[in-house]
Amino acid sequence: MKKFIVGSRRSQLALTQSKQFIAKLKEKNPGVEIEIKEIVTKGDQIVNVQLSKVGGKGLFVKEIEAALYNKEIDFAIHSLKDVPSVLPEGLTLGCIPDREDARDAFISKGHVKLSDLKEGAIVGTSSLRRGAQILNLYPHLNIEWIRGNIDTRLKKLETENFDAIILAAAGLNRMGWGEDIVTEYLDPETMLPAIGQGALGIECRIDDLETLSLLATVHNSETEVCTQAEREFLKLMDGSCQVPIAGHAVMSNDEITFTGLIMSTDGKEKYKVTESGTDPVALGAKVADAMQRNGAQKIIETLNNTPKSN
Ligand SMILES: NCc1[nH]cc(CCC(=O)O)c1CC(=O)O
């Protein structure tokens, strides 16, 4: 039997989620041989610059996609929220497995709740989406830029001048750290998650039938449908990482309900639309269309024209 080679970033979270995914594949496909090849991406190397200013999240996938094209690897395990909404030609998402918790987790010194933080308290995040939503609800707080892997950020909360940080619950759960350190999980009304948050996207070559049939064994069609609505919205609205954008879909009784959100960076302008439907792509498009009619496009145009330096 063929041995499959899977590409993974080298961060602790990437390797952990790769190992967990491989374990699931092995459970469904006893005897299958899978080996991890670690790949260092630009996004991992550049740590001192705000990501949205140097090319955005695509930085985490480029080198991995090159390895797919060169057939050095058969598939790659990404956090879906790091995967651009349009894939390069010849590559596809071979499966979308079960979704982890999509919410954001709030972690503060002394376990003070978000709503109890004092005037001027400093919340560390490098996400425009998280910053804008916090400022919209709590304009008396300060947002300061923080970067690094999850463990680095947790350390910085202890050692630097932050009162709180926000991290994806999914990453914490996969590392097995969730319950112990989280002050509160933020519901989507307070903090709408990033598009694709909590889900994985498994990327492979579109013509590699052997890999596609292996991946099909761990596919979750509910997650696929929800994230399709989210990613269609992202594709139609944005194009860059300069814009605070969020979106989350849930399914019940075969109906998908999707909420999309666009904000100004300071949180003062807010466009939020919720729609339901059964066709995920049409639903994502419907919300994008409603946003554009509301005037959300103005925010996007302004932010996309802001110079990238400074
Ligand atoms: N932005 C980086 C990133 N990409 C994926 C996750 C983990 C959560 C997920 O799988 O959605 C994280 C960390 C975070 O946002 O706290």
Task: Reconstruct the topology from this structure.
Blueprint lengths: L2 E7 L2 H17 L4 E7 L2 H4 L16 H8 L5 E5 L11 E5 L8 E5 L13 E3 L3 H10 L4 E3 L5 H10 L4 E5 H7 L2 H4 L2 E3 L13 E6 L3 H7 L5 H17 L7 E8 L2 E9 L6 E8 L2 H15 L1 H9 L6
Parallel strand pairs: 1-2, 1-3, 6-7, 6-8
Antiparallel strand pairs: 3-10, 4-10, 5-8, 5-9, 11-12, 12-13
Helix pairs in contact: 9-10
This protein binds ligand PBG.
The site of ligand PBG has 10 residues, from strand 8 and helix 6.
Describe this structure in words.
By secondary structure, the chain is of the alpha/beta class. It has three domains: 3-97 and 199-219, D-Maltodextrin-Binding Protein, domain 2 (3-Layer(aba) Sandwich); 104-186, D-Maltodextrin-Binding Protein, domain 2; 234-304, Porphobilinogen deaminase, C-terminal domain (Double Stranded RNA Binding Domain, 2-Layer Sandwich), CATH 3.30.160. It has eleven helices and 13 strands. The chain has helices at residues 12-28, 42-45, 62-69, 128-137, 150-159, 169-175, 178-181, 209-215, 221-237, 280-294, 296-304, and strands spanning 3-9, 33-39, 75-79, 91-95, 104-108, 122-124, 142-144, 164-168, 184-186, 200-205, 245-252, 255-263, 270-277. Strands 2-1-3-10-4 form a five-stranded mixed beta sheet, sandwiched between helices. It has a five-stranded mixed beta sheet with strand order 7-6-8-5-9, sandwiched between helices. A three-stranded antiparallel beta sheet has the order 11-12-13. Helix 9 packs parallel to helix 10 (280-294). The longest helix has 17 residues, at 12-28. The protein is globular and about 60 Å long. The model has no long low-confidence stretch (mean pLDDT 92). The structure holds the ligand NCc1[nH]cc(CCC(=O)O)c1CC(=O)O.
